[in-house]
């Protein structure tokens, strides 16, 4: 393995004339929580299914833990929650896990350990059908954790959970990664990804539009300048930061430049007779970035969404 847990290269899936996944390349590194973020129908599940060897790509290739997705050596080291797991409603959570555990040649102890790991130990004797949605979802993660896999692949693990259930799930996943396991999860919830993921891949209409850390994607190195008169300030700013690095925004200027430019910028503005009213670092929220990248006019000004959910 070359230091990556998952490597997808131009992975593509076509259904008739629909390109569900269009040439997606990404890497997931050991021990990280990688968030695969995109609106409904963007191609997240299809990509995860290809990485698990559940469906065959129409093009491109992928390796998981250094081998072909779905190969027996890989399957033993990957735990997944992609389609809702089929649990027996009349069996207890513990017995459900023991069934799965035996099926995979593991001991009952492995099942009990996984149950404890997701905090369901005390309710392990209750029937599955009496579980809340959050508990069912946690049991699904416990099933994926059976046998301590090196990689956990989870499709929308917090889908349908209430805020407390979501917070529980987030804690659990951060805890899993802290123990050294790698987590690849998909989500359409920005806040969630922002909170728990080390790195993010953003997918829209089948295409990966960005990959990087949350800080990378936000592009923290920008400055907002309010000054008068604005046209003179614009000329000075362009001279210093470059023509393409300055745009008019929010009744001022936005410069793609590092904070180290501020003293020189202010000096030159003042020397040119410009009144400097405000200079500050601009940090875009991941939400703004997301809408900018996935919206109908990529690269245009972001809309101003207020909801945390993007679909
Ligand atoms: N078996 C299939 N046959 C035909 N089209 C499919 C099939 N599976 C997925 N698609 C289409 O591929 C596109 C991507 O679907 P996918 O389920 O991967 O998206 P997603 O990002 O996981 O969305 P969601 O968050 O709604 O699950 C959609 O347009 C979907 O209708």
TrEMBL record:
Record-linked InterPro entries: AAA+_ATPase (IPR003593), ABC_transporter-like_ATP-bd (IPR003439), ABC_transporter-like_CS (IPR017871), P-loop_NTPase (IPR027417)
Record-annotated ABC transporter domain positions: 6-230
Record bears the keyword Nucleotide-binding: yes
A GO molecular-function annotation: ATP hydrolysis activity
Coiled-coil residue spans: none
Region (Disordered): 292-311
Matching SUPFAM superfamilies: P-loop containing nucleoside triphosphate hydrolases
Key words, A-Z: ATP-binding, Nucleotide-binding, Transport
Assigned protein family: Belongs to the ABC transporter superfamily.
PANTHER family found in the cross-reference section: ABC TRANSPORTER, ATP-BINDING PROTEIN
Name the UniProt record assigns to this protein: ABC-2 type transport system ATP-binding protein
Species, as recorded: Geodermatophilus africanus
Lineage per the UniProt record: Bacteria, Bacillati, Actinomycetota, Actinomycetes, Geodermatophilales
